[in-house]
Design goal:
The structure holds two protein chains of two kinds.
Chain A lengths: L2 E7 L2 E7 L6 H8 L18 E4 L2 E4 L12 E3 L1 H4 L7 H8 L9 H14 L5 H7 L10 H12 L3
Parallel strand pairs in A: 1-5
Antiparallel strand pairs in A: 1-2, 3-4, 3-5
Helix pairs in contact in A: 3-6, 4-6
Chain B lengths: L6 H14 L3 H7 L15 H4 E3 L5 E5 L8 H13 L6 E5 L16 H28 L6 E4 L2 E4 L5 E3 H5 L32 H5 L15 E5 L9 E5 L9 E7 L2 E6 L2 H10 L1 E4 L11 H7 L2 E10 L2 H7 L2 E9 L11 E7 L2 E6 L4 H12 L6 E5 L11 H15 L3 E4 L2 H7 L6 E9 L5 E11 L9 H6 L24 E9 L14 H18 L4 H7 L4 H13 L10 E3 L2 E11 L6 E11 L5 E11 L6 H20 L28 E6 L13 H4 L1 H13 L5 E2 L3 H11 L1
Parallel strand pairs in B: 2-3, 7-17, 13-26, 15-16, 19-20, 24-25
Antiparallel strand pairs in B: 1-2, 4-5, 5-6, 7-10, 8-11, 9-10, 12-20, 13-18, 14-15, 14-17, 18-19, 21-22, 22-23, 23-24
Helix pairs in contact in B: 1-2, 4-5, 15-20
Classes of the chains: A alpha+beta, B alpha+beta.
């Protein structure tokens, strides 16, 4: 039975119609709303490629049922910044060339942005700990840490 | 010179732009469906690689594809440099079988070394032709003309013509001339610079289209349902078990190939989970706890002697001192963060497939064979996926999509789930290596003898899972990749014999994973070199230099000693409580003809817990001419971190029926708190040939770690991965 669910995504009110309200948010973002930021990596909350912000908190959209989102504001990588006006974390990833294949990068940026919003003056060890649940297979870790520290250094 | 008019070019130019912007729908509908080639793809033709439009825009057609290594940016640099046009005037189309020449699989660190040099020579031929054309048109001798920003002008100023004006939308119709003069590297302004990667702004803002993001009109979603045991036969399917799934289109069964197709992705996932099927029992895998004995006992189909100098067999018994050691290296999975994905559409007798395959031209042949279709009716279009590091599951997902699309008569997207990727992508085969050496009375190496136990086969088409499951045409033998490379050694010992015993079978379907064979072989060779150096109490760098008749190799090792402030064995050794620190060296001349890499690893070993951490790597890297220094550094960092992960943590686990390491808990990889620091020195050789950088630095990592562990605690680790349990066992065995 199709159910209409209202969402606030990247500052826009949208409605998605789904057969199963238990469907994870990730599939609504990718298939119903056509977003490319959140990626499918594992569907098990083990890798972080699907990370989005719910009311500013980094969550794994691959295991977040659509029915549980409610009125929380969803922000994806697209909503964080644009190529013309990137978010400081996105700009830092460009400045440090902190990408290889880039498939995990959505999660790295979303996790780091949520972390930096609440952490003043983090150490490098703090940053590594904050990203401990995000996996990268290309081995871009060194650059990712440099990019996040570049933003942390500003605050 | 012969510029030829062509009506098709204008048509294609439009579609080319659309390909670049990833607007796939117009491409699909406006360009010839299926595989028909609509432009010349002959690899001896300039037109196969290059087109210049009337406004001077350059399109590069590359059979080599960017697998997330940044090679698209590097190829753009090479073409822009050789043609003397600004970077932003060049676009690159990759791996579309209807548009790009077949330059072979994107593997083996050959995209720049081979693929890039074909493009460079095509550009040089094109540039010379354009200058000659300008000379005729302007009435100025070619020698008095210069090219700047895609405009040919006379040195004295005044007369000029742009590339666009000279070509007027025509093709070159020109053979690539291997003698066409290349630009003097001293004049380079684009090659050799750390140009920012072209794809990063889109990737960090969610504007990039990965394969996993592609959607085509009318598309359905498919999922495959794999057998619970690798060789199980499908006995029955209960289609009624998924009747309740909204939007279910079809349950597809072809022999042992089972899949579901639904209107929505979540519907397909739900149906695949819910579908009840009965399979026969199968338990044909070896006992995991006896894997190495199984490998040793596997039938040998032939012996490949990869080097034979002097007479090692006769020399070994004469040695004053003999050493022997056995090394093994576990099976690994590629572990792409994005599981494999593909879309297939069959319409009007032609097949179009979108895939992140590293070998779209080969995949085209495999899909045509599978469906018994003419190759000309198949088109495979590359779209970048997550990093693949070799032949992972992309080709298999493509075949899955093709079978499901054929069954429902609509385009189908197949996205593998995590367990599909971990469980069913082909694996790096288990590698077992026996080494022996003899030393003479004064401690010189008299003989070296090695035996490798590795599967038969080379780099070829890895059999598609769907072919085997559905019993379709296209069965192939084992294709583990070029795993004999670096079985032979770079050192000039008087007696050397290196032999590979090629095994009839290997437990799981094999393929190549980053630095295939070279990684495992270099692990054993360079660990054993350290054992020899230690046996004669020699400094491991000095010991290698003694046997290296190769100035470039020697320069790498000498620079490495400086970069790492190396001053002999034990120089880094420290002990604090239970934790001992040590340093180890490793060296490779990749495949004995190209990229040189030297590494010093620093490790910390906890004697009580067995936990091993690599805290630092110093790397010196000589890949000849560097196209993009930051790009090479990015690859080296990636090689170090990824291979550290493989060395410390990774192994595919299995029971008698199937792979059991099906997710990131069962198959852990390195996490942020565990990463080392890395110092890199690039040997800059702008006037030399460029060699690959995508793999070679991986090869030195495991031995550098093992040798550092020996430095720290005097214990040899000869079995990858170096898990805490194995470290503790080695400590117990050593004490």
């Amino acid at each position: 039975m199709a159910t209409a669910i209202a969402l606030d995504v990247n500052g826009r009110s949208v409605t998605v119609t789904v057969d199963d309200p238990q469907m994870p948010l990730l599939y609504a973002l990718r298939n119903d709303l056509g977003l490319h930021g959140p990626s499918f990596g594992c569907g098990l909350a083990q890798c972080g490629a699907c990370t989005v912000h719910l009311d500013g908190k980094a969550v794994r959209s691959c295991v977040t049922p659509l029915a549980a989102v409610g009125t929380q504001k969803v922000v994806t990588l697209e909503g964080l910044g644009t190529p013309e006006r990137p978010h400081p974390v996105q700009q830092a990833f460009i400045d440090e060339q902190a990408v290889q294949c880039g498939y995990c990068i959505n999660g790295m940026i979303m996790q780091a942005a949520a972390f930096l919003a609440t952490s003043k003056d983090p150490s490098e060890a703090d940053v590594k700990q904050a990203l401990a649940g995000n996996l990268c297979r290309c081995g871009t870790h060194l650059r990712i840490v440099r990019a996040v520290m570049r933003v942390a250094g500003r605050g | 010179m012969a510029f030829a008019e062509t009506s098709r070019r204008d048509f294609l130019r439009g579609t080319g732009a659309l390909v670049v912007s990833f607007t796939l729908t117009p491409l699909m509908t406006s360009c010839a469906r299926g595989g028909a080639e609509t432009r010349t793809l002959a690899p001896d033709q300039v037109d196969a690689f290059l087109a210049i439009d009337a406004r001077g825009g350059v399109t590069v057609y590359s059979g080599k594809v960017d697998l997330g290594t940044g090679v698209r940016t590097a190829l753009t640099q090479i073409a822009a440099e050789e043609l003397d046009v600004p970077l932003d005037r060049v676009t690159v189309i990759e791996g579309d079988t209807a548009l790009t020449p077949d330059q072979g699989v994107t593997s083996g660190s050959l995209s720049i070394e081979k693929g890039g040099m074909q493009i460079r020579q095509a550009a040089a031929t094109a540039r010379r032709a354009l200058v000659q054309q300008a000379a005729q048109r302007l009435g100025v001798p070619a020698g008095d003309l210069v090219v700047e920003n895609g405009t040919v002008r006379s040195r004295s100023g005044g007369q000029q013509a742009t590339y666009g004006e000279l070509l007027r939308g025509r093709t070159f119709s020109l053979k690539i001339d291997s003698e066409a003069p290349l630009k003097d590297p001293a004049s380079y302004t684009i090659v050799g610079r750390s140009v920012a990667r072209l794809d990063i702004p889109a990737k960090v803002t969610g504007r990039f289209t990965f394969m996993q993001n592609v959607r085509v009109p009318g598309m359905l979603h498919g999922r495959v349902v794999r057998p619970p045991a690798i060789g199980a036969a499908l006995q029955s399917v209960d289609a009624a078990s998924v009747k309740s799934v909204p939007g279910l289109v079809k349950v597809v069964r072809l022999g042992n190939f089972l899949g579901v197709v639904a209107e929505t992705e979540w519907g397909a996932i739900t149906a695949a989970r819910q579908l009840r099927a009965t399979w026969s029992a199968w338990a044909g895998l070896p006992d995991e706890s006896r894997l190495w004995q199984h490998v040793r006992d596997t039938a040998v189909v032939k012996n490949d002697v990869t080097s034979d100098v002097g007479n090692a067999e006769q020399a070994l018994p004469r040695a004053a001192r003999r050493l022997a050691a056995t090394y093994d290296f576990a099976m690994h999975t590629h572990g792409s963060i994005g599981p494999s994905c593909a879309i297939a559409e069959i319409k009007d007798g032609t097949l179009t497939c979108w895939s992140a395959s590293q070998a779209t031209h080969d995949l085209r042949k495999q899909l045509a064979t599978m469906l018994s279709m003419p190759e000309r009716d198949v088109r495979v279009i590359y779209v970048e996926g997550a990093g693949c590091y070799g032949r992972n599951g992309h080709e298999d997902a493509a075949a899955d999509a093709v079978l499901l699309a054929r069954a429902v008569g609509r385009p189908v997207r197949v996205q593998w789930m995590r367990a599909d990727e971990h469980g069913w992508d082909p694996k790096g085969p288990p590698t077992l290596i026996d080494l022996q050496a003899g030393l003479d009375e004064i401690g010189l190496v008299l003989a070296w003898s090695s035996q490798f136990f590795v599967p038969q086969g080379a780099t070829g088409d890895v059999e598609l899972l769907a072919v085997g499951l559905a019993n379709l045409p296209g069965k192939t033998g084992l294709n583990p990749g070029g795993i004999l490379n670096d079985t032979a050694i770079p050192y000039g010992f008087a007696n050397v014999r290196t032999v590979a015993h090629r095994l009839a079978t290997t437990p799981l379907r094999p393929s190549w994973i980053r630095s295939p064979g070279r990684l495992q072989n270099t692990f054993a060779n360079e660990s054993f070199m350290d054992e020899l150096a230690s046996a004669v109490q020699a400094d491991p760098i000095a010991f290698r230099l003694r046997y290296l008749d190769d100035p470039r190799g020697a320069e790498v090792l000498n620079r490495l000693a400086r970069l790492a402030s190396w001053s002999g064995r034990g120089s880094g050794r420290r002990e604090t409580g239970d934790v001992a620190t040590g340093r180890g060296v490793s060296y490779v001349k990749y495949e004995l003809y190209r990229t040189y890499v030297g590494a010093v690893a620093t490790v910390e070993v906890n004697r009580k817990t067995g936990v091993l951490r690599a805290t630092h790597f110093a790397i010196v890297h000589d890949c000849g001419q560097v196209i993009n220094p930051d790009g090479v550094r990015n690859q080296i960092e990636g090689n170090v971190v990824q291979t550290l992960s493989r060395t410390l943590k990774e192994q595919v686990t299995f029971d008698r029926s199937r792979v059991t390491s099906l997710d990131w808990v069962g198959y852990p990889i390195l996490t942020f708190p565990e990463i080392p620091t890395v110092d890199i020195e690039l040997v800059d050789r702008p006037t030399d040939k460029p060699w690959g950088a995508g793999e070679p630095a991986a090869a030195v990592v495991p031995a550098a770690i093992a040798n550092a562990v020996f430095d720290a605690i005097g214990v040899r680790l000869r079995s990858v991965p170096f898990t805490p349990a194995k470290v503790l066992a080695a400590i117990r065995a050593g004490s």
